Amino acid sequence: MTARIGVVTFPGSLDDRDTQRAIRLAGAEPVALWHKDKDLKQVDAVVLCGGFSYGDYLRAGAIARFSPVMEPLIEQARAGLPVLGICNGFQILTEAHLLPGAMLGNDHLHFICREQKLRVENADTAWTADYTAGQEIHIPLKNMDGRYVADRYTLDKLEAEGRVAFRYLDGNPNGSLNDIAGITNEAGNVVGLMPHPEHAVEPLIGTGRTDGLPFFTSILKKLVTA
């Protein structure tokens, strides 16, 4: 049976359709989830996509974190449901305390949109298994509040436990501490990153490469072999 991966749409989401297409290209079935849904429609995994949920009022992701759909998502993520947060989705995951730290405004105070070089630091999560540790990839980046911050204890813990999933190369685009582009929880089922892998799944669009597709093939293989 085909794996079913939910994609949550909040008011202000931008990349839900792109994410659904990436899931379809990987061979899974995308399932649309609305922010007011009170159940996850028995999906096997969930992606919180990019955008500006609720206009980024208060803080990016701060209002979306209290949407009805987040109650079952938080509960099931803590029980092992694979969840990927992309850009605004990453911000929502930190606000929901499914991932540690917080996202602040870029240190240069400008929106940034460019191709970004990354290094894969952890290839053992549900969403990164089709990469190899140390692999360098190119993924589109677009954000205003992309600066990852955490206290020194949390940063040291992430580094010591190998929970930095991706790191910026060739220049830090937003002032993120330790050049962190993405992290994972302790179990490896929840991953968040600021760059947009869904925009790098076909040669015709994005970077002209398919460096983002392994996010979606990784989770498909994980679900098939589970």
Automatic annotation (TrEMBL):
Matching SMART domains: GATase_5 (SM01211)
Subcellular location: Cytoplasm
Reactions mediated catalytically: N(2)-formyl-N(1)-(5-phospho-beta-D-ribosyl)glycinamide + L-glutamine + ATP + H2O = 2-formamido-N(1)-(5-O-phospho-beta-D-ribosyl)acetamidine + L-glutamate + ADP + phosphate + H(+); L-glutamine + H2O = L-glutamate + NH4(+)
Keyword annotations of the record: ATP-binding, Cytoplasm, Glutamine amidotransferase, Hydrolase, Ligase, Nucleotide-binding, Purine biosynthesis
Isomerase found in the keyword field: no
SUPFAM superfamilies from the UniProt entry: Class I glutamine amidotransferase-like
Main location: cytoplasm
Catalytic residues of the enzyme: C87, H196, E198
Stored CDD domains: GATase1_FGAR_AT
Metabolic or biological pathway: Purine metabolism; IMP biosynthesis via de novo pathway; 5-amino-1-(5-phospho-D-ribosyl)imidazole from N(2)-formyl-N(1)-(5-phospho-D-ribosyl)glycinamide: step 1/2
Gene3D superfamilies: 3.40.50.880
EC number per UniProt: 6.3.5.3, 3.5.1.2
Function (record text): Part of the phosphoribosylformylglycinamidine synthase complex involved in the purines biosynthetic pathway. Catalyzes the ATP-dependent conversion of formylglycinamide ribonucleotide (FGAR) and glutamine to yield formylglycinamidine ribonucleotide (FGAM) and glutamate. The FGAM synthase complex is composed of three subunits. PurQ produces an ammonia molecule by converting glutamine to glutamate. PurL transfers the ammonia molecule to FGAR to form FGAM in an ATP-dependent manner.
Quaternary structure and interacting proteins, as annotated: Part of the FGAM synthase complex composed of 1 PurL, 1 PurQ and 2 PurS subunits.
Protein known as: Phosphoribosylformylglycinamidine synthase subunit PurQ
Species per Swiss-Prot/TrEMBL record: Streptomyces thermoviolaceus subsp. thermoviolaceus
Name of the encoding gene: purQ
